[in-house]
Amino acid sequence: MPGVRPVGSKRGHAHNLPSPEEARRTSWRVSLALLVCFLVTLPALHTILQGFGWWFAMAGTVLAVLGAAALARVLSVRRWVPAISGSLVLLALITLFFSGRSAFLFVIPTFESFGVFGDLGQAGAASIAGQSVPADVTLGIAFLLCLGVGVLAIAADFLAVSRRLPALAALPLAVILAIPPFIGIELSDVFVFLLAAIAWLVLLRAGQPFPQTGRAIGLGASALIVALLVPIALPRVDDSLASGDSFGGYLAGVNPVLSLGNDLRRELPRTILTYSTLSGAPTYLRLVSLQNFTAETWAPDPPEIDRDNVPSRVGPPPGLSADVRVEDETTWVDVQNLGSPWLPVPYPATLVSGLSGDWFWNAKDLTFTSPNRAARGEVYKAQSLQVEPTPAQLTAAGRVVPEEYSAYLALPDGMPPIIAAEAEQVTAAATSDYGKAVALQEFFRNGAFTYSETAPVDEGYDGTGMEVLAKFLDVRSGYCIHFASAMAVMARTLGIPSRVAVGFLPGDKQAATVDGRTQYRVTTLNVHTWPELYFEGIGWTRFEPTPGRGFVPTYADEATPGVPTPPAP
Q1: With contact defined as beta carbons under 8 Å apart, do 85 and 71 qualify?
Q2: 156/201 same-domain check
């Protein structure tokens, strides 16, 4: 009868609803298509993660979660049951693989298990902070990846199958796609994005018997587009060492070299820390040393945590003999804005007290790092040595390089000839490694080079790779990272072990005092790098090749009696 329809029916939809059997078949198809969507979307992370093992771990997590949800639908028609089932399987899975020993029957978490999860999450964040991209996938990072993708899979399954809106599954997928370009637009992989979009269209086709509204499809398509375009339009995340928020701070730690230029070019400098010393003298504060030089960059070793290396018992400075004169110094530090897992301390520190959380020192370079927190907010006292070798001691230092320091001589294949040739020419008149080091330092400071934070950017050679250094030696203009890395690499070509230290210049003296001690303020303008060269019996020794920045140590200052004087250029 015209105008009459069955009671309770919905206009235009009753005849479109699938039968229960058809709905079950469709849900299985959608679950399978959803799995494919994740499998082709996860490779988007290959630009920020090393290797491929992480893909198998994440794919296995998605398979387990979606499989559990699909099986739950066979046993129950309630929409919330698959989500609960997927969540329980995810919890059991991460318990088994990340905290099995502390769990009941390996898969049922205990209170201890949740403590392990918290530690792993913090360790993962700290590991991200301590690495450059692509990062090695540590246990903590693997935990965060599996947990995160499991939660996204549960959300996607609920939207695509339980709510019968497959188009909205694009939202969780877009989260994965957006991560690399959010860190850096150059890390996007358009090919993976296209594969993900095709897989999403297949998902829509698989869920066709479900009612598909134009609004849902439009929202899903928009999510994929936003994942690609929004990171381009957004302002860059503040990845400087002085980022005031945790997320930006951890990004800063991804590579301590990459944020240097950003910090130095800030229009409005930000305070990083304040400090005072017992002697009243200013001091350099060191964060981390970079040992590994590749064709592309300098990078630190991954943090090695030895829980016996507590700050209250710091080992002796590597290579320092008892006959070298030292003075004790005490430094009080108040860190305000430093999103870094490394602690700023004078080198070499002998004891650090007053820290909160877990901090440990590294035997290789006496850097201090934490597996679960940043330096921001720490207030502590550091005792250290002021090492004062004489020119005679440095001249007499042997040329024997301990086997454990052979890595500090490593150079990549294909080095531009200008680097070694320049080093040989500059040091031709020197009769000792010490003399060569002073000659290299003065080569950069004698007026032939200029300090510029913009020239490397304007002329396209900002960075620390070997081609960048060759261009720097030709243009003769750059900032601290170029001077420090060039001197360190040139020293290696001469057989002198070297590394690059990242830290802070002494900062500006303040009118206010703290307990009668002179206070110094360190800002983003004081972020600095300098080379450290190894001499037998002396240990790691600081030099200052950057013109107009910092101060030259007494043992390397030409005004000090006994310091070799390089010939005029």
Answers
A1: yes
A2: yes
Task: Identify the three-state secondary structure at position 333.
Answer: strand
Domain that holds residue 217: 16-233
**Count: domains in the chain:** 2
Cis before 348? omega within 30: yes
From the number of C-beta atoms within 10 Å of its C-beta (0-12, 13-18, 19+), residue 66 rates as buried
Q: Are residues 86 and 208 in the same domain?
A: yes
226 and 266 assigned to the same domain = no
* Whether residues 315 and 411 fall in one domain: yes
- Is 564 part of a structural domain of the chain? no
**Based on the domain organization, do 297 and 187 belong to the same domain?**
no
**pLDDT the model gives residue 245:** 38
Handedness of CA 135, 140, 142, 145 (dihedral sign): negative
Residue 370 in tokens: 């934490």
CB atoms within 10 A of CB 253: 29
Please calculate the CA angle 47-34-38 and round it to the nearest 5 degrees. Answer: 10
- Rounded-to-10 torsion of CA 156, 161, 162, 166: 70
Residue 280 lies in a domain: yes
So what's the pLDDT on residue 359? 93
Residue the block writes with tokens 């005490």:
330
Tell me, yes or no, whether 341 lies in a domain: yes
Radius of gyration (Cα) for the chain, nearest Å? 29
* pLDDT recorded at residue 408: 94
**What angle (nearest 5°) sits at the alpha carbon of residue 274, between those of residues 269 and 278?**
145
- Are 303 and 179 in a shared domain? no
CATH code at position 278: 3.10.620.30
* Domain assignment of residue 9, yes or no: no
Residues 385 and 431 in one domain: yes
- Record the tokens describing residue 213, joined without a space: 């509204």
Cα 108 to Cα 102: distance, rounded to the nearest angstrom: 9
Q: How far apart are CA 154 and CA 163, in angstroms?
A: 12
527: helix, strand or coil: strand
Q: Are residues 206 and 269 in the same domain?
A: no
As averages over each run of 10 residues, the pLDDT of the chain (569 residues) reads 44 51 72 89 88 90 90 79 87 85 79 82 68 73 90 88 78 85 75 83 70 52 54 47 40 48 67 94 94 83 81 92 95 88 94 92 91 85 96 89 88 92 95 95 93 79 80 91 95 96 94 90 92 95 94 92 79
Helix axes 170-183, 214-233, angle to 10 degrees: 10
Q: How much is the pTM?
A: 0.64
Angle 553-544-525 from CA coordinates, rounded to 5°:
110
Q: What kind and span of H or E run contains 542? A: strand 539-542
| DSSP collapsed to 3 states, 80-130 | HHHHHHHHHHHHHHHHHHHHHHHCECCCECCHHHHHHHHHHHHHHHHHHHC
Angle at 56 between CA 52 and CA 174, to 5 degrees: 90
Q: How far apart are CA 298 and CA 500, in angstroms?
A: 8
Of 233, 250, 275, which closes a domain?
A: 233
